[in-house]
Amino acid sequence: MTHDLIIIGGGIAGGAMATVMARAGRTVLVLEASDSFVDRVRGEWISPWGVTETKRLGLYDTLRNADTHHLTRHITYDESLPPEMAEAAAIDLGIFAPDVPGPLCIRHPEHCQTLFDAATAAGATMLRPVQILSVELGANPKVRYVHEGVESEATAPLIIGADGRTSVVRKTAGIHLHQDKPHHWFAGLLVDGVKGWDENTQAIGTEDEFGFLAFPQGGERVRVYGGYPLNQPRRFAGADGARAFLDAFRMKSCPKNDAIANGTPAGPILSFHNNDTWSDLPFVQGGVIVGDAAGWNDPINGLGLSVTYRDVRIVSDILKETASGAAPDFRPYAEERAERMRRLRFVGQMQAARHGVWGRGEGAASALLHAFG
Questions:
Q1: Angle CA(293)–CA(215)–CA(165) in degrees, nearest 5?
Q2: Is the CB of residue 77 less than 8 Å from the CB of residue 126?
Q3: pLDDT above 70 for 370
Q4: Helices 108-122 and 12-23: crossing angle, nearest 10°?
Q5: 96 closest CA partner among 53, 55, 48
Q6: Distance (Å, rounded) from C-alpha 155 to C-alpha 370?
Q7: Torsion angle in degrees (nearest 10) through CA of 46, 52, 58, 60
């Protein structure tokens, strides 16, 4: 069959793109590998500028109709500061973007499913689970795939790769992914029964060899992350890993973290390296890549979803402005994304130094000076 667009990957990037383009009247085919969306321990916090992008895309109301939660206050704790001083310097998160009260939190599985359903309602053809057999780009893009035991072939003027970090579309296009050295380990866990933590307040802090981030999801549920040195790869491994991880949150510099440590794991604990990746040119003839497929910022910044929504907004605007039968010009997207990711790499390096440099017996502030001095 022939479509206006084929999108490989039906998660956040693919679902958002499919919804926007189907609402614009395009015939869209989405091929998603998974049978159901699961907790991947990332992709649950949208920064204020990312929330603005969802509004530009017409997706904000769609997300707000799901189980989402705005955060309005931020506290930075540090071993060099008394906790009451850190709390007195709390930041109002509504100052960063017009008409946005603060970051928006939504669980990854629900986020993906919400957009998948929205794309379906908009008229996109959403197939899952799908096995991709081959992808061809160039002048006559096509995809061979298996769905429900039947092998099929689909063609379109453009294939969009929204298929994540191991993107088949990126590999087929021969797009090189640059990668800097890992900065540290990063683990994440969803926690229930967190009693006594303000559901509107997010926090970040560092003490000894552990840096934490906490993002309430509403009620007594909090998504937490922790950074730790590269020489401790199995620090939170094994059957007791989740409990050891929560115990690491008990900090003198943040007594309120006891509420998190006393909570109950509500999902898997997963660890991964914190570092940056990026591509120089995220498109070729007949193909373009968005979201993590095109490279991702150090997760310590928490900007993965915002990067993805900006990608979707720019690429969808280009497609909607391209005359029927003409080839879209993705050079503005490539130029903007390259500069955006360059700036975010710098921010990520500062954050990694601020909350991910350990072992010198120094506070995070002096670690930052050491890293960049």
A1: 10
A2: no
A3: no
A4: 20
A5: 48
A6: 54
A7: 40
> 3-state class of 16 per DSSP?
helix
Is 297 within 8 Å of 303 (Cβ atoms)? yes
Residue 13 corresponds to which tokens in the numbers above? Answer: 């990037």
- The rounded distance, in Å, linking the Cα atoms of 118 and 134 is 27
Contacts of 239 (CB under 8 A, 6+ apart): none
Place of tokens 């990668």: 179
pLDDT tens figures, 312-345: 999 999 999 999 889 999 999 999 999 999 999 9
10: phi then psi, degrees, rounded to nearest 5: -115, 25
Is 2:154 a contact under the CB 8 Å cutoff?
A: yes
CA 11, distance to chain mean position in Å, is 11
Token digits for 89? 């310097």
For residue 147, pLDDT beyond 90 = yes
Mean pLDDT of 251-270: 96
φ, ψ for residue 66 (rounded to 5)?
-90, -170
Cα gap 163→112, rounded to integer Å? 13
Integer Cα distance of 148 and 127 in angstroms: 9
